């Protein structure tokens, strides 16, 4: 994978100009993602992802975003388009590395504890926090919360 700068990444997106305008409005508001998410009634990680062009935002939330940021609804409605998603920056690369390294072990444990099933990415929650450990080191905590979906027992399969 060839590393890209954030500007190169954003320029790949269909709505790069609109995303820049949204970021300017967010900065002008003085709100961080957590504060903005609380005012809108959504998860901070989901909102930050939407502001990077990686989430579909329902119309009602486009209206709320516009109201809180003091911009026209039209300026936020581009978020109601379904995005193309990709991995390009170092943090995203590390997340892929984590799944490459630990994914098979996570899969085995899910099967050991949950049977012949998978984790949903649709009925799914995600949270991220940065905290200090007992030695004063900054730590990132990522929590995936996906519904366990057993494989259907249809047809002539042994499960």
UniProtKB/TrEMBL annotation:
Keywords: Lyase
Database matches in Pfam families: Cyanate_lyase (PF02560), CYNS_N (PF21291)
GO MF, one annotated term: cyanate hydratase activity
Residues of the HTH cro/C1-type domain: 22-76
Lineage top rank: taxon: Bacteria
Alphabetized SMART domains for the sequence: Cyanate_lyase (SM01116), HTH_XRE (SM00530)
Stated role: Catalyzes the reaction of cyanate with bicarbonate to produce ammonia and carbon dioxide.
Protein name (Swiss-Prot/TrEMBL): Helix-turn-helix domain-containing protein
Species: Clostridium autoethanogenum
């Amino acid at each position: 994978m060839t590393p890209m700068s954030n500007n190169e990444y954003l320029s790949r997106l269909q709505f790069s100009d609109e995303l820049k305008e949204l970021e300017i409005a967010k900065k002008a508001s003085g709100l961080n993602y957590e504060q903005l998410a609380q005012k809108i009634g959504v998860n901070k990680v989901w909102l930050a992802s939407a502001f990077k062009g990686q989430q579909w935002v329902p119309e009602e939330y486009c209206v709320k975003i516009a109201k809180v940021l003091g911009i026209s609804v039209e300026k936020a409605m581009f978020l109601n388009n379904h995005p193309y998603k990709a991995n390009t920056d170092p943090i995203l690369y590390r997340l892929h590395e984590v799944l490459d390294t630990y994914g098979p072990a996570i899969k085995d444990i899910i099967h050991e504890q949950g049977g012949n099933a998978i984790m949903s990415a649709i009925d799914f929650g995600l949270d991220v926090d940065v905290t200090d450990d007992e030695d004063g080191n900054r730590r990132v905590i990522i929590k995936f919360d996906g519904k366990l979906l057993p494989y259907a027992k249809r047809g002539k399969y042994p499960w």
